[in-house]
Amino acid sequence: MSQTRASRRRTTLLAAGVAAGALLLSACGGEQTGSSSGDTKFVKGTGEITKVSKGDRTSVPDLSGPSVDGKKLKLSDYKGKVVVLNVWGSWCSPCRAEAPNLAKVARDTKGKDVQFLGINTRDLDKANAKAFERNYEIDYPSFYDPSGKLILKFPKNTLSPQAIPSTLILDKDGKVAVRALKELNEKELRSALDPLTDAK
């Protein structure tokens, strides 16, 4: 009898493990856990949009590196502007769904002290990232971060971009004012961005 119970328990645990593995593989984005081989795994985002009051905002790491187009890119060059920092990959279907919204709002806010930037991750071939930018008429630059090293610079347990897609909106002092761990529609993006562009 005890052997039967043990066998059932093993079967239940195995089924739970398979289900968890399937969930991880089906997810597009989320928390990163690095391994010694440099691999980065991702799980699904929370679907939350977090807004931070001015006195509680924290600074982000000064990201720098090559862009998808091979140019030098540095986050601190945009201090004094509201920065929309979007984490994306060409392989990610929610990223494809939100890309037209980001492109449209980026065009509409040109000249309003707003800068859109991307962090392209897990695209091992730049050609895929470049095709994504062409297809969705993305005309703002993106860091090229195939291994996720830039994302790992954000301290754990902070308002870090833990999902793909995810978006941080930085105020003019370079501090995180909004974090979205989800695909953003145009209305959500404008609602998060407008109070910061209107702030004096």
Topology of this structure?
Blueprint: H1 2-26, E1 32-34, E2 40-42, E3 49-51, E4 64-66, E5 72-74, E6 82-88, H2 93-108, E7 114-121, H3 126-135, E8 142-145, E9 166-170, E10 176-180, H4 186-198
Parallel strand pairs: 6-7, 7-8
Antiparallel strand pairs: 1-2, 3-10, 4-5, 6-9, 9-10
What is shown here, in short?
The protein has 200 residues and is of the alpha+beta class.
What does this 3D model show about the protein?
This protein is of the alpha+beta class. It contains 4 helices and 10 strands; from the N terminus they run αββββββαβαβββα. The strands form 3 sheets. The protein has a 6-stranded mixed beta sheet with strand order 3-10-9-6-7-8, with helices on one face. Strands 1-2 form a two-stranded antiparallel ribbon.
Largest sheet: 6 strands, mixed
Low-confidence residue ranges: 9-27, 29-43
Span between termini: 73 Å
Which strand order does the major sheet show?
A: 3-10-9-6-7-8
Q: Keywords, please?
A:
200 residues, alpha+beta, six-stranded mixed sheet, 22% strand, globular
